[in-house]
From TrEMBL:
Domain Aminopeptidase N-like N-terminal: 53-192
Function: Aminopeptidase N is involved in the degradation of intracellular peptides generated by protein breakdown during normal growth as well as in response to nutrient starvation.
Gene Ontology molecular function terms on file: alanyl aminopeptidase activity; metallopeptidase activity; zinc ion binding
Lineage: superkingdom: Bacteria
Keywords: Aminopeptidase, Hydrolase, Metal-binding, Metalloprotease, Protease, Zinc
Enzyme class: hydrolase
GO biological processes: proteolysis
SUPFAM superfamilies assigned: Leukotriene A4 hydrolase N-terminal domain (SSF63737), Metalloproteases ('zincins'), catalytic domain (SSF55486)
Name of this protein: Aminopeptidase N
Domain Peptidase M1 alanyl aminopeptidase Ig-like fold: from-to ranges: 450-553
Length: 876
């Protein structure tokens, strides 16, 4: 692993490349430990580069075998080289051909970046900087070239040979070898290069684009698992059709290939025409995948496909512009899922993720702008801020300028920047043009880190009957950004009277029309709205649909929340009311107040009986997690106190709602064949949430029902949910169920990952021992990212009382594991370590222990650049 440069790389230092690569011919001779890579580059000086500059190519961990220039072998003195670069001090002034031969060892590549082996297959991962681990190259996203790739391999070892673009030739060679030649006509940066060699099964389907192009879609998976790719194929077809209809985007090659591998650092990768996936986001069957897994497969398949336009046809000028492709593509996949499923439920789930990941990131030492202005290790910037907050910015843009101007702006973007490496400014310029509007203040969302706080103050004057609503914004300081400027915050709002009627929003404001429609923009520090003719103070529903990634303060009062829970016609804020009521009660309990929560229970009871959307009801009955509570508290966090208070609320509500919950169970008993559609999934979700809450109120009954549910379950959703409930109630029932589950699925690694995760999250003292035992389990491995995350990631993120154990035992086992993973897979180690980023929000004793744990990592002398970057920033 290369160490990060001592000096960070800065956006303001961007300079175009000194050379252009017109075409790349690659020749791979695949071999387990000595793969030979010959690269033939057609180079010329970039008129926009520095005149007379040397040619410097990037490399990482390469063995250089041979170099030739315009067909003549180069002497060793003619160039400079090290493992990290290749330099020609005086390249020809005119165009020239450079041929470089390197040797790489895919088996020794445990970083899973570059060319590596997953099981018996060869595969690549080049984003962000993996291509330089294959050959010396201009490894930067603004160096676009056309690629032709010839792959040779033993036919018995790798009957399947894939790369980007379309297949142009294939055939047999001597000695049991064979070859395939692929050509990708679309210029691309090297991070989109991909190669796969191996022996895999597949499913295929024909797709005709709206203009009549015939495309062969194929998904390659482990032999025997072909049927588990059917849902992914179905999602792919729907995504392709949707992108044609919603964004006018068509696919542009004759084939589209997806390969699932079981060793992968991230979710998936959008390589041109050859997406490579973590198999977790391809494989799904009713027996092995939950409803949430099905939804994730659909979303990730769509996400990678949508990158074909937002990322590939239009790529990023430099890695600072990562949100240009990621934020926009997440927005697109969110919209797709919203159209395929319930829009309200999708929005609620997306906001839950945003708060759980991005808000926490934004409030801690790793906070950075959606477009960072400096980095030391780019792999550490594939963050919730770049992805999820990046998507929120695109969503706000749509809200601010309206769907029509947004659609026209997208059209301009696709037309004007096709085939280029673009910037955030390029993107925004399209919308400034389509909306005829200045977007310079809006652009601050990209450059300013931190979650803005909108402070709400209300006043009702019974004499004048005027209700005034004052909104003030501020953004807390973040690392390197002390001062913040006002943002343009779109705020959707409504008012409800005591009977729950929605009031007309009449004002004498200069922007009365905008207000009447329930949408305002807070662009100055403070804005006051005055509503005349109101006999009493109404309840205010703000940030409806979560119209901006902001926090509202202070918390809304209980009476208003109960009213909104009953009457708000914005499902997001109706759900928010349930969450806010739960938060109020839990924090009151933390302060030692006695609570009965009768009114809250009544409100939920009414919601249960009136709602005809089971998925929504399930979300309203899912209370903020312990991690949510820690984030809301923000300082002096004692995870034990939060756990106890949350448990007490669930007991109270489970008890109070017993009859309603039992009715749900009766009403929603699964019948018929499993179908992953949103409506069926919603019914299962409600059934399982009801069972879990019922068990919180009555452990004995809960155990009995959960055991029965576990035994009767015919799909993984019900199976795992029942196991989760049993995991909380404990006892023999739990241990028996875990044992049976293991026996049944021992051969199925994605299911065994769930088995590891669920055990790691049991909130009991004995779990620390259990996790230590699981680390030594014969099925455990620190080398497989999914497995490592299943145990350690789940422990750190999903078991606050044990991870933050008072005696430091949770940190100890976690940090030991991170330190062991780091030399093998720095990206994985670095990402896991981010779980400690909120250490400063803990109460003093744990804060000290967590800091020591981080310091122990930082002190490892051989620490990788990636992990060092996280440890250093977290401690700064
Ligand atoms: N671009 C991919 C995610 C991805 C990012 C980095 C990787 O390696 C460091 C791998 C994949 C996506 O957004 O899906
Ligand atoms: Zn992406």
């Amino acid at each position: 692993m290369r160490n990060p440069p001592p000096q960070p790389i800065r956006l303001k230092d961007y300079a175009p490349p000194d050379f252009l690569i017109d075409s790349v011919e690659l020749f791979f001779s695949l071999h387990k430990s000595k793969t030979r890579v010959r690269s033939r580059l057609a180079l010329r000086r970039n008129p926009k580069g520095r005149s007379g500059a040397p040619l410097v190519l990037d490399g990482d961990d390469l063995t250089l075998e041979r170099v030739s220039l315009d067909g003549r072998p180069l002497d060793r003195e003619a160039y400079e080289t090290g493992p990290e670069n290749f330099k020609l001090a005086q390249p020809p002034e005119g165009p020239f051909i450079l041929e470089i031969e390197t040797l790489v060892d895919p088996t020794a590549n445990t970083q899973l970046s570059g060319l590596y082996r997953s099981g018996a297959n060869y595969c690549t991962q080049c984003e962000a900087q993996g291509f330089r681990r294959i050959t010396y190259f201009l490894d930067r996203p603004d160096a676009l070239a056309v690629y032709t790739t010839r792959i040779e391999a033993d036919k018995s070892e790798a009957p399947l040979l894939l790369s980007n673009g379309d297949l142009v030739e294939a055939g047999a060679l001597e000695a049991g070898r064979h070859f395939a030649v692929w050509r990708d006509p679309y210029p691309k940066p090297c991070y989109l290069f991909a190669l796969v060699g191996g022996d895999l099964g597949s499913i295929s389907r024909d797709f005709t684009t709206k203009s009549g192009r015939k495309v062969k879609l194929s998904i390659f998976v482990e032999h025997g698992k072909e049927a588990r790719a059917d849902y992914a194929m179905d999602a792919l077809e729907r995504a392709m059709r949707w992108d044609e209809e919603r964004f006018g985007r068509e696919y542009d090659l004759d084939v589209f290939n997806i390969v699932a591998v079981s060793d992968f650092n991230m979710g998936a990768m959008e390589n041109k025409g050859l997406n490579i996936f973590n198999d977790k986001y391809v494989l799904a069957s009713p027996q092995t995948a939950t409803d949430a897994d099905y939804a994730a497969v659909e979303a990730v398949i769509a996400h990678e496909y949508f990158h074909n336009w937002t990322g590939n046809r239009i790529t990023c000028r430099d890695w600072f512009q990562l949100c240009l492709k990621e934020g926009l593509t997440v927005y697109r996949d969110q919209e797709f899922s919203a159209d395929m499923r319930s829009r309200a439920v999708k929005r609620i789930n997306d906001v839950r993720t945003l708060r759980l990941t991005q808000f926490v990131e934004d409030a801690g030492p790793l906070a950075h702008p959606v477009r960072p202005d400096s980095y030391r290790a780019i792999d550490n910037f594939y963050t919730a801020t770049v992805y999820e907050k990046g998507a929120e910015i695109v969503r706000m843009l749509n809200t601010l300028i309206g769907a029509e101007a947004f659609a026209r702006g997208m059209e301009i973007y696709f037309t004007r920047f096709d085939g280029t490496a673009a910037t955030v400014e390029d993107f925004l310029s399209c919308f400034a043009e389509s909306a005829k509007r200045d977007l310079s203040q809006f652009a601050r969302w990209y450059s300013q880190a931190g979650t803005p706080v909108v402070e709400v103050a209300t006043r009702h004057d019974p004499q004048t009957r005027v209700f005034s609503l004052t909104l003030s914004q501020s953004t807390p300081p973040t690392p390197g950004q002390e001062q913040k400027l006002p943002l343009e915050i779109p705020i959707a709002l409504a008012l409800f009277d005591a009977a729950g009627n929605k009031l007309a929003l009449e004002t004498n404001d200069a922007k009365a029309d905008e207000i009447a429609q329930g949408r305002i923009v807070l662009s100055s520090e403070t804005r006051t709205l005055r509503f005349p003719n109101l006999a009493a103070a109404p309840s205010v529903s703000l940030l409806r649909g979560f119209s901006a990634p902001a926090r509202l303060e202070p918390p809304v009062g209980e009476a208003d929340l109960l009213r909104l829970l009953a009457h708000d016609d914005d499902p997001f804020n109706r759900w928010q009311a349930s969450q806010s009521l739960a938060l109020r009660s839990i924090f009151a309990r933390v302060r030692g107040e006695e609570r009965t929560d009768d009114a809250f229970a009544d409100g939920l009871g009414r919601l249960i009986s009136q709602s005809n959307d089971p998925a929504f009801t399930a979300l309203a009955l899912t209370f903020p997690s312990e991690a949510d509570l820690a984030r809301e508290q923000g300082e002096d966090v004692d995870p034990d106190a939060l756990h106890a208070a949350r448990k007490a609320l669930r007991e109270t509500l489970g008890h109070a709602l017993k009859t309603s919950l039992a009715k749900i169970l009766e009403r929603l008993t699964e019948q018929g064949a499993y179908s992953p559609d949103a409506a069926s999934a919603g019914r299962r979700a409600l059934h399982n949430v009801a069972l879990d809450l019922l068990a919180a109120g009555d452990g004995a009954l809960g155990t009995q029902l959960a055991e029965a549910h576990f035994n009767a379950a015919r799909n993984m959703t019900d199976r795992l949910a029942a196991l989760g409930t049993l995991a909380l109630v404990g006892g023999d029932a739990r241990e028996n169920a875990f044992a049976r589950f293991y026996e049944e699925f021992a051969e199925d690694s994605l299911v065994i990952d769930k088995w590891f995760s669920l055990q790691a999250t049991i909130p009991e003292e004995a779990t620390t021992r259990r996790v230590l035992d699981l680390l030594a389990h014969k099925d455990f491995s620190l080398s497989n990212p999914n497995r490592a995350r299943a145990l350690l990631g789940a422990f750190a993120a999903g078991n606050p009382t044990r991870f933050h154990a008072r005696d430091g035992s949770g940190y100890a086992l976690f940090v030991d594991a991170v330190i062991s993973i780091d030399p093998k897979n720095p990206q994985l180690a670095a990402r896991l370590l981010t779980s400690l980023r909120s250490w400063r929000t803990l109460e003093p004793d744990r804060r000290r222990l967590a800091e020591e744990a981080l310091r122990r990592v930082a002190a490892v002398p051989t620490l990788s650049g990636d992990t060092n970057d996280i440890a250093t920033r977290a401690l700064a």
